[in-house]
Write a structure and sequence with these properties.
11 helices; 269 residues; elongated; 3-stranded antiparallel beta sheet; mainly alpha
């Protein structure tokens, strides 16, 4: 049976600001996580699969997240802890990303209190997820912490280290509600450029359809034509010739189909 005291190397922070800190999230450490857990140690010893055999300072929450995880490498356990933190505090992080304290002044007391609490918890949770660990020493060997990638978010060439900053910029610059932008961002491969382009295309399409219906309705009333017939014909004309505007297509319909007709073209209602 593997022995924790002889088999595992304790991680000790090299810098005082990280003393007594959880390696996974930066909170106050209260436990030691074992990588891999002691109950799996014999398996890794017998199979000789890669395993760090580190004794890692951890907060109670990260310790609980990892106590049943079999991962033997510190980097793997960092990923597991971050993923479970993100899942547990997903709602609070969403509030933190979408809301600012100065945006809730006109809300009711209960809602304002709830959002304020969400912002505070979401900010703390986000910082824990982005915590990069710390440089440490184990058995006299010094190690640099490189377990969390420096994620960069881009918005048409503008670069941001923090998602919330990128979201705020994109929302204001392109006039897209943050909640809608987050949804489109996650639905389209976590790409702001794609999300913004698709949103703008949707707005343009909605505006076009509204204009099309208004102008075709006026035309159908003036010339006693069926509205659906007019709309279908105008859309067909525009598909055949992309240079046509709605007004130009309506003029073409009048010239080609109605102008010289002694009996107006009537289509079924």
């Amino acid at each position: 049976m593997a022995d924790e005291t002889t088999l595992y190397r304790q991680i000790s922070a090299l810098h005082s600001e990280n003393f007594h800190s959880c390696f996974y999230c930066g909170c106050i450490a209260a436990k030691y996580d074992l990588a891999p857990p002691l109950k799996f140690a014999d398996f890794y010893l017998k199979t000789r699969e890669d395993a760090d055999f580190y004794k890692v300072p951890a907060c109670r929450e990260c310790f609980d997240f990892l106590k049943n995880d079999k991962s033997p490498l510190l980097g793997q356990r960092v990923d597991v802890a971050k993923r479970k933190l993100a899942r547990k505090y997903q709602r609070a992080i969403r509030i933190y990303e979408v809301w600012d304290h100065d945006e809730i002044g006109d809300l009711g007391y209960q809602l304002k209190h709830s959002i304020n609490a969400g912002i505070v918890l979401g900010k703390e949770s986000y910082q824990r997820i982005k915590f990069k660990g710390f440089d440490f020493e184990a058995d006299g060997e010094k190690h640099s912490a490189h377990y969390v990638d420096n994620e960069v978010f881009t918005v048409f060439g503008e670069k941001f280290d923090i998602f919330r900053d990128a979201l705020d910029y994109a929302s204001k610059a392109y006039r897209i509600p943050k909640a809608k932008l987050i949804t489109m961002f996650t639905e389209h491969n976590n790409c702001f450029d794609t999300a913004i382009n698709l949103f703008q295309q949707k707005i343009a399409r909605n505006s076009y359809e509204k204009e099309l219906k208004q102008k075709c309705r006026a035309f159908s009333l003036e010339h006693k034509q069926n509205l659906q017939f007019v709309m279908r014909t105008i859309e067909l004309f525009c598909q055949q010739d992309h240079s046509l505007t709605i007004e130009m297509a309506l003029a073409k319909l009048y010239t080609d189909r109605l102008k010289d007709c002694s009996n107006p073209l009537l289509t079924p209602a």
